[in-house]
Amino acid sequence: MNGPASAPAPAAIETPDSETFPIEVRGLVSRFGDHVVHDGLDLKVERGEVLGVVGGSGTGKSVLLNTIIGLKAPDGGHVRLFGGDMRTASRRRWSSIERRWGVLFQQGALFSNLTVRENVSAPLHEHTRLPRREIDEIADLKIAMVGLPAHAALLKPAELSGGMRKRAGLARALAMDPELLFLDEPTAGLDPISAAAFDELIKDLSESLDLTVFMITHDLDSLYAITDRVAVLADKKVVAVAPVHELERSDHPWIKKYFLGPRGRAAASAESLAEARID
Ligand SMILES: Nc1ncnc2c1ncn2[C@@H]1O[C@H](COP(=O)(O)OP(=O)(O)OP(=O)(O)O)[C@@H](O)[C@H]1O
């Protein structure tokens, strides 16, 4: 009875969730004393996507980021990065996961007493045993990759403009060739032209390096310019995850106010204008 008619159907090739979803958050509860920030928050970030994360002030976007990268322990639920749960993963396994992501914090979080090259080199010194000369070369490559001039390598953060500091922070986040990049309000504090240039840089890098990007932002222009989907935090949860144009049609009161308020409409029409120019 082994003829073709009775042969079992070929097994479906299953992609492990860890490959499909570099980030998977299930039923997350986050608390500070009696203050509940997240209560049953679910979110899956797909491989290769640029996910924008929005929500009103204090809805817990930064707490979510800090929890995903292991700076805050969840008070309930699970957070998995590349399939690994930091609460149960061995130190060694967690350290191998840590090498797969980079983060650009809102203030850049650069060491003020180190040069840009030394800042970008820091993760390489921490995680690899490469000789110093090779590390310097990699750092210079990353500095060029983010569009900083070569001489910036020898400057200290205080000697850089706000936009250059963001780029230096990004170069450091990219030092270990991550697959996953976390950005906390990357365009905050930049003038509109620098912000648009930074958006463009993130879009180019995410495409050329095949990065998955988790980006907290208040910047509507960034949402329209570079995200594939947007997750909205409200009511202690993620209340919607969808491409920005679908969110425009949402009935959720906060989403409506956000996208259909004057700033939302301006960002949407700026995008239509840009698309018309490309056509
Ligand atoms: N270390 C902490 N101790 C106590 N409460 C905290 C702590 N960190 C954050 N919170 C509280 O958690 C809530 C969410 O803060 P979070 O910084 O994540 O908000 P956010 O959505 O990123 O806000 P914003 O858009 O203004 O940056 C806030 O009410 C904040 O006061």
UniProtKB/TrEMBL annotation:
Coiled coil: none
Swiss-Prot/TrEMBL keywords: ATP-binding, Nucleotide-binding, Transport
Organism domain of life: Bacteria
Protein name (database record): ABC transporter related protein
Lineage: Bacteria, Pseudomonadati, Pseudomonadota, Alphaproteobacteria, Caulobacterales
CDD domains assigned: ABC_Org_Solvent_Resistant (cd03261)
Organism: Caulobacter segnis (strain ATCC 21756 / DSM 7131 / JCM 7823 / NBRC 15250 / LMG 17158 / TK0059) (Mycoplana segnis)
Domain ABC transporter: start-end pairs: 23-260
GO molecular function terms noted in the UniProt entry: ATP binding; ATP hydrolysis activity
